[in-house]
Amino acid sequence: MSLVRNIYSPISAENDREAFETLLQNDCFRLERIVSQSHHATPEGEWFDQPADEWVILLRGSAGLTMEGEAGPIILNPGDHLLIPAHKKHRVEWTSPAEKTVWLAVHFRASVPSDCRDVRINMHSGG
Fold first, then answer.
1. 75, pLDDT greater than 50
2. CB 28 within 8 A of CB 109
3. Where does the pLDDT of residue 26 fall: very low under 50, low under 70, confident under 90, or very high at 90 and above?
4. Cα dist. 52→7, 24, 36, 65, 106 in Å?
5. Rounded distance, CA 67 to CA 8, Å?
């Protein structure tokens, strides 16, 4: 098995909206690849409300992300990144109509205990 993988490798979605793949994790953080289909939006009335902080960078495509209580979507293009605090409700308003949108997200706790050293690498997917 090759140790080299590619962040843009195909990923199969369980639905027609988004696919999530955990790349690395331990008890204190999770590194996740997210691939959104073209024209994706979080269903009307639904919000993400996560228990951990999330740092996200957009690698390919584009997206509009709305944070609860803020006016208008935040427009993200390749290379743009932001920190979403724990329990800050947010939603994807749209993704690029021309291509799949690829994100990289790190979910973590603001206070990191000293036992956060055991990192598990997901090598199940090809790439």
1. yes
2. yes
3. confident
4. 23, 16, 21, 18, 10
5. 27
pLDDT tens for each residue of 97-109: 999 999 999 999 8
Q: Higher-confidence residue: 51 or 127? A: 51
- Residue 18: beta bridge partners? 36
Strand partners, 95: 63
Separation in Å, CA 36 to CA 10, 29, 41, 104: 12, 22, 9, 11
CA 92 to CA 75: how far, in whole Å?
10
In terms of Cα–Cα distance, which of 24, 8, 19, 40 is closest to 123?
A: 24
